[in-house]
Amino acid sequence: MKAARLHAPGDIRVEDVARPEPGPGQVLVQVMAYAPYGTDVGTYLNRGGRYVKSYPVGIGADFSGIVAQLGAGVEGLAPGDRVSALALDHCGACANCTKGRHNLCLDPAFRTPARQTCCEEYTLVSARKLAVLPDAVGFEDAAMLAGPVDALNAFRRMRLEAGQRVGIVGVGAMGLGAVAMARALGLEVVAIGGSGRRSDLAGELGAAHLFPIAAHGESVAERVLGAFPEGLDAVMETTASAWGMDEAFAVAAPGARVALTGGGDLPVSNWQIVERELEILGVKAGPGQVEVLEFIARGDLSLRPTITRRFALDDVAEAFTLLAGPQARDVGRVIIEIGETA
Ligand SMILES: [Zn+2]
Predict the structure, then answer these.
(1) CB-based contacts of 210: which residues, under 8 Å, 6+ apart?
(2) pLDDT tens, 9-40?
(3) What is the count of structural domains for the chain?
C-alpha cells in the first residue's frame, strides 16, 4: 500500500509499505480523507525537535475511512462501516470512561497513547476510538472532527449556553472548528487573530465579531477591549502559542473562564489569577465525537466551506509545503484524498 513517511524535517515521501494486520482490539481502516492541522505541520517540521524522535515516521491523526478488517475480539463494527476516529484511546472500563469522560481515562496504559498515523491507504486503529458515521455525514466533514470535539468540551467546561458570547483566539484549523461548533450551539463568537483569508473564513462560519491581525504576532487585544470594554467572560485559546496566551488573558474580563487546549507559558501570575478571579480550564481533546457527528448529520455544523485545497496522496509533499509556507494565511482546511470515493 502507499503511505506517506517523513524522513527528516520537511522531507515527506510517498512509499510502498506492507499493509498492516490488525491485532486484538484493532481495526484496519481504509483511509478516505485526511485533514492535516497545526500539530501535523509541527510534526512535518519537527518544530523544537519535540515531535519526532526517530525517522522514518508516518503522519496524520484527523481522518475518516471504511472498516476493512477486524482484529480478534472486536465487536460492534463490520467491514464496510464508514467511520471516524477520536484522537485519544481509552480503556472503556475505568471510573472516568464509564461516566463518559474517556479523554481522562485513568488506566496508566493509556496515559501516553501510541501515535496515530493516517496519511496512508490503510491504518490500524484501536476499535474504541472509532465511531460509525451517520448516513448524512460525508468523509470530508468526518475528517475534520478534532476542532469541534475540543471546542464542545471547552464550551461545556465553561458552562456556556446559547446566546452567550465567547472569544476564540486563533482561526487556524482548530480555531475554525471552534467557531463552527460555537455557532452550532448558538454562541456569539468574537474571533481573535488570523491574517489573510482565514479571518474571512471565521466570518463566513458565523463569527459575529472579527479582529484579524495584519502581521504574525500582532496584538489586537486593545481593539477587542475597545469593542468590549469590560472584557470577555469566556475565552478559548486554540493556538498553543505565546501570542495566543497573551491575547486570551489580555481580553479576559474579571471573573472570566479561560479554556486552554495546549502549551505556551501562562502570562498571568498567581496573584493576578486571584485578583481577577480567573477560572483557567484545561481541555484535553474531548469525549464528544458521536455528538459532533450528530450536529453534522442535522446540518448544524460543517467545515466543508473552509476547505480551500484538495490533494491526492501522491501530492502530499506539495500540501505540506503549502501549509508550512507563507501562503498558509490564505489556506483554510486542506484535504488529502486517499481512498477512491466513487
Ligand atoms: Zn478508562
Answers:
(1) 191, 194, 199, 202, 203
(2) 999 999 999 999 999 999 999 999 999 998 99
(3) 2
